[in-house]
Design brief:
Elements (H helix, E strand, L loop, with lengths): L26 H17 L4 H8 L6 H8 L8 H8 L2 H13 L1 H11 L3 H12 L8 E2 H10 L4 H16 L8 E2 L12 H7 L15 H14 L9 E5 L15 E2 H6 L3 E2 L11 E5 L9 E4 L1 H9 L3 H14 L18 H13 L13 H13 L10 H11 L2
Antiparallel strand pairs: 1-2, 3-5, 3-7, 4-6, 6-7
Length: 403
Protein backbone atom coordinates (compact mmCIF):
# COMPACT_ATOMS: atom_id res chain seq x y z
CA UNK A 1 0.00 0.00 0.00
CA UNK A 2 1.43 3.35 -0.99
CA UNK A 3 1.37 6.28 1.40
CA UNK A 4 -0.97 9.13 0.58
CA UNK A 5 -1.32 12.61 2.02
CA UNK A 6 -3.34 14.34 4.73
CA UNK A 7 -4.45 17.95 4.71
CA UNK A 8 -2.79 19.67 7.68
CA UNK A 9 -5.26 22.48 8.28
CA UNK A 10 -4.47 24.67 11.27
CA UNK A 11 -6.27 27.92 10.44
CA UNK A 12 -9.81 29.10 11.11
CA UNK A 13 -11.21 26.24 9.06
CA UNK A 14 -9.45 23.64 11.24
CA UNK A 15 -11.28 20.97 13.15
CA UNK A 16 -13.81 22.54 15.50
CA UNK A 17 -13.29 21.16 18.98
CA UNK A 18 -16.42 19.84 20.59
CA UNK A 19 -18.16 22.80 22.18
CA UNK A 20 -21.71 23.64 23.18
CA UNK A 21 -23.67 25.58 20.60
CA UNK A 22 -25.05 28.83 22.08
CA UNK A 23 -28.80 29.29 22.06
CA UNK A 24 -29.22 31.40 18.93
CA UNK A 25 -32.89 31.87 19.80
CA UNK A 26 -31.96 33.66 23.04
CA UNK A 27 -32.21 37.14 21.56
CA UNK A 28 -32.42 38.78 24.99
CA UNK A 29 -29.12 37.26 26.07
CA UNK A 30 -27.53 38.17 22.77
CA UNK A 31 -28.68 41.80 22.97
CA UNK A 32 -27.47 42.09 26.55
CA UNK A 33 -24.08 40.80 25.44
CA UNK A 34 -24.13 43.16 22.43
CA UNK A 35 -24.66 46.13 24.76
CA UNK A 36 -21.33 45.23 26.35
CA UNK A 37 -19.72 45.35 22.90
CA UNK A 38 -21.24 48.79 22.38
CA UNK A 39 -19.58 49.97 25.57
CA UNK A 40 -16.20 48.57 24.53
CA UNK A 41 -16.50 50.20 21.10
CA UNK A 42 -17.31 53.59 22.69
CA UNK A 43 -14.29 53.24 24.96
CA UNK A 44 -12.16 52.55 21.87
CA UNK A 45 -13.34 55.79 20.27
CA UNK A 46 -15.85 54.42 17.75
CA UNK A 47 -18.60 56.93 17.02
CA UNK A 48 -22.13 56.33 18.27
CA UNK A 49 -23.40 56.68 14.72
CA UNK A 50 -21.21 53.82 13.50
CA UNK A 51 -21.97 51.64 16.51
CA UNK A 52 -25.71 51.83 15.96
CA UNK A 53 -25.51 51.57 12.18
CA UNK A 54 -23.37 48.42 12.40
CA UNK A 55 -24.72 46.68 15.50
CA UNK A 56 -28.35 47.85 15.47
CA UNK A 57 -29.56 45.35 12.84
CA UNK A 58 -27.36 42.46 14.03
CA UNK A 59 -28.94 39.18 15.10
CA UNK A 60 -27.12 35.88 15.72
CA UNK A 61 -26.74 33.59 12.71
CA UNK A 62 -27.34 29.83 13.15
CA UNK A 63 -25.85 29.36 9.68
CA UNK A 64 -22.51 30.82 10.79
CA UNK A 65 -22.44 28.53 13.83
CA UNK A 66 -23.20 25.54 11.60
CA UNK A 67 -20.32 26.47 9.29
CA UNK A 68 -17.99 26.93 12.25
CA UNK A 69 -18.89 23.50 13.61
CA UNK A 70 -18.57 21.67 10.31
CA UNK A 71 -16.22 18.72 10.46
CA UNK A 72 -15.72 17.10 7.06
CA UNK A 73 -15.51 13.37 7.61
CA UNK A 74 -12.70 12.74 5.15
CA UNK A 75 -9.43 14.63 4.95
CA UNK A 76 -8.05 15.70 1.59
CA UNK A 77 -4.89 13.95 0.53
CA UNK A 78 -1.87 16.02 -0.40
CA UNK A 79 -2.51 15.59 -4.13
CA UNK A 80 -6.24 16.23 -3.78
CA UNK A 81 -5.50 19.45 -1.92
CA UNK A 82 -2.91 20.59 -4.46
CA UNK A 83 -4.93 19.59 -7.52
CA UNK A 84 -7.95 21.57 -6.28
CA UNK A 85 -5.90 24.75 -5.91
CA UNK A 86 -3.02 24.70 -8.38
CA UNK A 87 -5.08 23.96 -11.47
CA UNK A 88 -4.04 24.51 -15.10
CA UNK A 89 -6.78 27.14 -15.41
CA UNK A 90 -5.54 29.01 -12.33
CA UNK A 91 -1.95 28.89 -13.53
CA UNK A 92 -2.99 30.27 -16.93
CA UNK A 93 -5.16 33.00 -15.40
CA UNK A 94 -2.44 33.90 -12.92
CA UNK A 95 0.04 34.40 -15.73
CA UNK A 96 -2.47 36.67 -17.44
CA UNK A 97 -2.83 38.68 -14.22
CA UNK A 98 0.94 39.01 -13.93
CA UNK A 99 1.12 40.40 -17.44
CA UNK A 100 -1.96 42.61 -17.16
CA UNK A 101 -0.84 44.25 -13.90
CA UNK A 102 2.88 44.20 -14.57
CA UNK A 103 3.52 47.90 -13.86
CA UNK A 104 1.57 47.93 -10.59
CA UNK A 105 3.16 44.72 -9.34
CA UNK A 106 6.65 45.88 -10.29
CA UNK A 107 6.19 49.09 -8.29
CA UNK A 108 4.93 47.15 -5.27
CA UNK A 109 7.88 44.76 -5.60
CA UNK A 110 10.23 47.74 -5.56
CA UNK A 111 8.51 49.22 -2.53
CA UNK A 112 8.04 46.14 -0.35
CA UNK A 113 10.41 43.51 -1.73
CA UNK A 114 7.73 40.87 -2.38
CA UNK A 115 7.88 39.38 -5.90
CA UNK A 116 4.70 39.69 -8.01
CA UNK A 117 4.29 35.94 -8.45
CA UNK A 118 3.70 35.43 -4.71
CA UNK A 119 1.11 38.20 -4.52
CA UNK A 120 -0.75 36.81 -7.52
CA UNK A 121 -0.57 33.27 -6.09
CA UNK A 122 -2.13 34.44 -2.82
CA UNK A 123 -4.75 36.40 -4.76
CA UNK A 124 -5.64 33.32 -6.79
CA UNK A 125 -5.90 31.00 -3.81
CA UNK A 126 -7.80 33.39 -1.56
CA UNK A 127 -10.55 34.63 -3.89
CA UNK A 128 -9.80 33.27 -7.37
CA UNK A 129 -8.36 36.66 -8.35
CA UNK A 130 -11.05 38.68 -6.64
CA UNK A 131 -14.04 36.75 -7.93
CA UNK A 132 -15.16 35.13 -4.65
CA UNK A 133 -14.95 37.52 -1.70
CA UNK A 134 -17.82 36.09 0.37
CA UNK A 135 -21.56 36.56 0.84
CA UNK A 136 -21.95 36.85 4.62
CA UNK A 137 -22.74 40.07 6.46
CA UNK A 138 -19.47 40.72 8.27
CA UNK A 139 -20.93 42.32 11.39
CA UNK A 140 -23.45 39.51 11.86
CA UNK A 141 -20.85 36.79 11.27
CA UNK A 142 -18.33 38.26 13.69
CA UNK A 143 -20.92 39.08 16.34
CA UNK A 144 -22.24 35.52 16.17
CA UNK A 145 -18.77 34.02 16.58
CA UNK A 146 -17.87 36.51 19.32
CA UNK A 147 -21.02 35.56 21.26
CA UNK A 148 -20.16 31.87 20.89
CA UNK A 149 -17.94 30.94 23.88
CA UNK A 150 -15.74 28.57 21.85
CA UNK A 151 -13.53 31.34 20.43
CA UNK A 152 -15.35 34.35 21.79
CA UNK A 153 -12.30 36.36 22.89
CA UNK A 154 -10.66 36.13 19.46
CA UNK A 155 -13.77 37.15 17.54
CA UNK A 156 -14.63 39.91 20.00
CA UNK A 157 -11.30 41.52 19.12
CA UNK A 158 -12.09 41.07 15.44
CA UNK A 159 -15.56 42.60 15.83
CA UNK A 160 -14.16 45.65 17.61
CA UNK A 161 -11.54 46.01 14.86
CA UNK A 162 -14.31 45.85 12.25
CA UNK A 163 -16.16 48.67 14.02
CA UNK A 164 -12.95 50.72 14.04
CA UNK A 165 -12.24 50.37 10.32
CA UNK A 166 -15.89 50.94 9.43
CA UNK A 167 -15.84 54.09 11.55
CA UNK A 168 -12.73 55.24 9.66
CA UNK A 169 -14.51 54.73 6.33
CA UNK A 170 -12.18 52.00 5.08
CA UNK A 171 -14.91 49.35 5.06
CA UNK A 172 -18.50 50.09 4.15
CA UNK A 173 -21.21 49.42 6.72
CA UNK A 174 -23.04 46.31 5.55
CA UNK A 175 -19.95 44.91 3.78
CA UNK A 176 -19.86 41.20 3.11
CA UNK A 177 -17.14 38.59 3.38
CA UNK A 178 -16.55 35.05 4.58
CA UNK A 179 -18.53 33.33 7.34
CA UNK A 180 -15.48 33.79 9.61
CA UNK A 181 -15.16 37.52 8.92
CA UNK A 182 -12.41 37.54 6.28
CA UNK A 183 -12.66 40.48 3.90
CA UNK A 184 -11.81 41.69 0.45
CA UNK A 185 -9.78 40.23 -2.37
CA UNK A 186 -7.04 38.97 -0.02
CA UNK A 187 -9.43 37.86 2.76
CA UNK A 188 -7.92 39.92 5.57
CA UNK A 189 -9.38 39.50 9.04
CA UNK A 190 -10.42 42.85 10.58
CA UNK A 191 -7.39 43.15 12.87
CA UNK A 192 -5.07 42.46 9.94
CA UNK A 193 -7.01 44.98 7.85
CA UNK A 194 -6.71 47.55 10.64
CA UNK A 195 -2.98 47.00 11.19
CA UNK A 196 -1.57 46.08 7.77
CA UNK A 197 -3.85 47.43 5.02
CA UNK A 198 -2.44 50.44 3.16
CA UNK A 199 -3.78 53.07 0.79
CA UNK A 200 -2.00 51.99 -2.37
CA UNK A 201 -3.75 54.37 -4.77
CA UNK A 202 -3.55 57.50 -2.60
CA UNK A 203 -7.29 58.22 -2.47
CA UNK A 204 -7.34 58.40 1.32
CA UNK A 205 -9.12 55.09 1.84
CA UNK A 206 -7.94 51.48 2.20
CA UNK A 207 -10.33 49.57 -0.05
CA UNK A 208 -9.51 45.87 -0.36
CA UNK A 209 -12.59 45.11 -2.48
CA UNK A 210 -12.34 47.52 -5.41
CA UNK A 211 -8.85 49.06 -5.45
CA UNK A 212 -6.24 46.65 -6.80
CA UNK A 213 -3.37 48.98 -5.75
CA UNK A 214 -4.72 48.82 -2.20
CA UNK A 215 -5.16 45.04 -2.42
CA UNK A 216 -1.65 44.30 -3.64
CA UNK A 217 0.13 46.89 -1.53
CA UNK A 218 -1.67 45.67 1.58
CA UNK A 219 -0.74 42.02 0.94
CA UNK A 220 2.88 42.99 0.30
CA UNK A 221 2.95 45.17 3.40
CA UNK A 222 1.63 42.32 5.52
CA UNK A 223 4.28 39.92 4.22
CA UNK A 224 7.04 42.50 4.62
CA UNK A 225 5.97 43.22 8.21
CA UNK A 226 5.94 39.47 8.87
CA UNK A 227 9.61 39.16 7.92
CA UNK A 228 9.69 38.51 4.17
CA UNK A 229 13.28 38.13 2.95
CA UNK A 230 13.76 39.90 -0.34
CA UNK A 231 16.69 37.73 -1.47
CA UNK A 232 15.09 34.32 -0.85
CA UNK A 233 12.41 32.16 -2.41
CA UNK A 234 10.00 29.95 -0.43
CA UNK A 235 11.66 26.57 -0.91
CA UNK A 236 12.28 23.86 -3.48
CA UNK A 237 11.65 20.22 -4.24
CA UNK A 238 14.61 17.98 -3.44
CA UNK A 239 15.74 14.39 -3.84
CA UNK A 240 16.76 12.33 -0.80
CA UNK A 241 19.55 9.74 -0.87
CA UNK A 242 18.88 6.06 -0.12
CA UNK A 243 18.74 5.36 3.59
CA UNK A 244 18.18 8.99 4.54
CA UNK A 245 17.34 9.53 8.21
CA UNK A 246 13.71 10.65 8.08
CA UNK A 247 13.88 11.80 11.70
CA UNK A 248 15.63 14.91 10.31
CA UNK A 249 12.37 15.98 8.67
CA UNK A 250 9.85 18.37 10.18
CA UNK A 251 9.04 22.09 10.13
CA UNK A 252 10.75 22.70 13.48
CA UNK A 253 14.14 21.25 12.48
CA UNK A 254 16.45 23.58 10.55
CA UNK A 255 19.90 23.06 9.08
CA UNK A 256 22.14 25.13 6.79
CA UNK A 257 21.98 24.16 3.13
CA UNK A 258 25.62 23.07 3.34
CA UNK A 259 24.65 20.44 5.92
CA UNK A 260 21.76 19.18 3.80
CA UNK A 261 24.19 18.93 0.89
CA UNK A 262 26.63 16.95 3.05
CA UNK A 263 23.79 14.60 4.03
CA UNK A 264 23.23 13.79 0.35
CA UNK A 265 20.16 15.97 -0.29
CA UNK A 266 20.10 17.36 -3.83
CA UNK A 267 17.80 19.39 -6.03
CA UNK A 268 14.98 17.40 -7.59
CA UNK A 269 16.97 17.12 -10.85
CA UNK A 270 19.97 15.67 -9.00
CA UNK A 271 22.15 18.78 -9.09
CA UNK A 272 23.79 20.34 -6.04
CA UNK A 273 21.89 22.58 -3.67
CA UNK A 274 22.58 26.32 -3.85
CA UNK A 275 25.69 27.51 -2.03
CA UNK A 276 23.80 30.38 -0.41
CA UNK A 277 24.08 30.89 3.35
CA UNK A 278 20.52 29.75 4.09
CA UNK A 279 18.89 27.45 6.60
CA UNK A 280 16.01 25.19 5.65
CA UNK A 281 13.61 22.61 7.04
CA UNK A 282 12.81 19.35 5.29
CA UNK A 283 9.10 18.61 4.79
CA UNK A 284 7.50 15.36 3.69
CA UNK A 285 3.90 16.57 3.37
CA UNK A 286 2.63 13.25 2.02
CA UNK A 287 5.07 10.91 3.71
CA UNK A 288 8.27 9.48 2.31
CA UNK A 289 6.55 7.58 -0.53
CA UNK A 290 3.50 9.72 -1.23
CA UNK A 291 4.74 13.04 -2.61
CA UNK A 292 7.59 15.51 -2.87
CA UNK A 293 10.36 16.13 -0.39
CA UNK A 294 10.74 19.89 0.13
CA UNK A 295 13.38 22.13 1.64
CA UNK A 296 11.63 25.28 2.85
CA UNK A 297 13.15 28.61 3.90
CA UNK A 298 12.22 31.56 6.08
CA UNK A 299 9.70 32.89 3.56
CA UNK A 300 7.74 29.67 3.89
CA UNK A 301 7.27 30.51 7.56
CA UNK A 302 6.15 34.00 6.56
CA UNK A 303 3.49 32.53 4.28
CA UNK A 304 2.32 30.43 7.22
CA UNK A 305 1.64 33.58 9.23
CA UNK A 306 -1.03 34.21 6.58
CA UNK A 307 -2.59 30.76 7.01
CA UNK A 308 -1.35 28.24 9.57
CA UNK A 309 -1.51 25.29 7.21
CA UNK A 310 1.52 23.55 5.78
CA UNK A 311 -0.42 22.48 2.71
CA UNK A 312 -1.71 26.01 2.10
CA UNK A 313 1.81 27.43 2.26
CA UNK A 314 3.08 24.72 -0.09
CA UNK A 315 0.25 25.50 -2.52
CA UNK A 316 1.14 29.21 -2.47
CA UNK A 317 4.80 28.53 -3.11
CA UNK A 318 4.14 25.95 -5.80
CA UNK A 319 1.59 28.13 -7.58
CA UNK A 320 4.05 31.05 -7.48
CA UNK A 321 6.67 28.80 -9.08
CA UNK A 322 4.24 27.63 -11.76
CA UNK A 323 3.37 31.24 -12.56
CA UNK A 324 7.09 31.80 -13.16
CA UNK A 325 7.21 28.88 -15.61
CA UNK A 326 8.51 26.17 -13.29
CA UNK A 327 7.25 22.60 -13.86
CA UNK A 328 4.96 20.59 -11.59
CA UNK A 329 6.51 18.59 -8.76
CA UNK A 330 8.67 15.74 -10.04
CA UNK A 331 7.66 13.27 -7.34
CA UNK A 332 5.60 10.36 -8.59
CA UNK A 333 2.02 10.18 -7.44
CA UNK A 334 1.12 7.02 -5.55
CA UNK A 335 -1.10 4.54 -7.33
CA UNK A 336 -3.33 4.58 -4.29
CA UNK A 337 -3.81 7.23 -1.63
CA UNK A 338 -5.05 6.35 1.82
CA UNK A 339 -8.20 8.26 2.64
CA UNK A 340 -8.32 8.89 6.37
CA UNK A 341 -11.01 10.54 8.44
CA UNK A 342 -10.63 12.89 11.36
CA UNK A 343 -11.79 10.00 13.54
CA UNK A 344 -8.88 7.95 12.18
CA UNK A 345 -6.43 10.67 13.13
CA UNK A 346 -8.00 11.02 16.57
CA UNK A 347 -7.52 7.28 17.01
CA UNK A 348 -3.84 7.67 16.10
CA UNK A 349 -3.48 10.34 18.79
CA UNK A 350 -5.31 8.25 21.41
CA UNK A 351 -3.25 5.13 20.67
CA UNK A 352 0.02 7.08 20.76
CA UNK A 353 -0.91 8.51 24.14
CA UNK A 354 -1.80 5.02 25.41
CA UNK A 355 1.69 3.87 24.41
CA UNK A 356 3.35 6.77 26.22
CA UNK A 357 3.94 9.10 23.26
CA UNK A 358 2.66 12.63 23.86
CA UNK A 359 0.55 13.43 20.78
CA UNK A 360 -1.30 16.35 22.36
CA UNK A 361 -5.07 16.67 22.45
CA UNK A 362 -6.91 14.03 20.37
CA UNK A 363 -8.41 16.67 18.08
CA UNK A 364 -8.01 15.03 14.69
CA UNK A 365 -5.42 17.60 13.56
CA UNK A 366 -1.96 16.51 12.42
CA UNK A 367 0.05 19.07 14.38
CA UNK A 368 3.67 19.18 15.48
CA UNK A 369 3.12 17.15 18.67
CA UNK A 370 1.33 14.38 16.82
CA UNK A 371 3.98 14.27 14.10
CA UNK A 372 6.85 14.08 16.62
CA UNK A 373 5.07 11.42 18.67
CA UNK A 374 4.38 9.38 15.57
CA UNK A 375 8.02 9.65 14.47
CA UNK A 376 9.09 8.34 17.88
CA UNK A 377 6.69 5.40 17.57
CA UNK A 378 7.89 4.66 14.04
CA UNK A 379 11.56 4.68 15.07
CA UNK A 380 10.79 2.39 18.01
CA UNK A 381 9.12 -0.14 15.71
CA UNK A 382 11.54 0.07 12.76
CA UNK A 383 9.10 1.91 10.51
CA UNK A 384 10.02 4.80 8.18
CA UNK A 385 10.05 7.70 10.66
CA UNK A 386 8.35 10.28 8.46
CA UNK A 387 5.77 11.25 11.09
CA UNK A 388 3.03 10.47 8.64
CA UNK A 389 -0.14 8.47 9.47
CA UNK A 390 -1.45 5.86 7.07
CA UNK A 391 -3.89 2.98 7.35
CA UNK A 392 -0.90 0.69 7.77
CA UNK A 393 0.45 2.78 10.63
CA UNK A 394 -2.98 2.76 12.30
CA UNK A 395 -3.10 -1.02 12.04
CA UNK A 396 0.37 -1.27 13.61
CA UNK A 397 -0.63 1.09 16.41
CA UNK A 398 -3.73 -0.99 17.13
CA UNK A 399 -1.69 -4.16 17.23
CA UNK A 400 0.94 -2.74 19.60
CA UNK A 401 -1.55 -0.94 21.83
CA UNK A 402 -3.87 -3.94 22.27
CA UNK A 403 -3.14 -5.79 25.51
Amino acid sequence: MRRGGLSIILGLAAVAAAAPVPAMSDTTGFQTWLNGIRQEARAAGVSERTIEAVLGPVTPSPRVIALDRRQPELLQSFWQYLDARVTPARVARGRQMLERHDALLAEIHRRYGVPPRFLVALWGLETDFGGETGEHDLAQALATLAYDPRRGAFFTEQLLALLTIMDAGDVAIGARGSWAGAMGQMQFMPMTYRDAAVDGDGDGRRDLWRSLPDVMASAANYLARSGWRVDETWGREVALPPGFDLALSGPDLRRPLAEWQALGVRRADGSDLPTADLSASLLLPAGVDGGPALLVYDNFSVIMTWNRSLLYAIAVGHLADRLAGEPPFRANRPLYEDTLSRADLQEVQILLARLGFDAGQPDGVLGAKTRIALQSFQRTHDLPADGYPTLGVIERLRLVATP
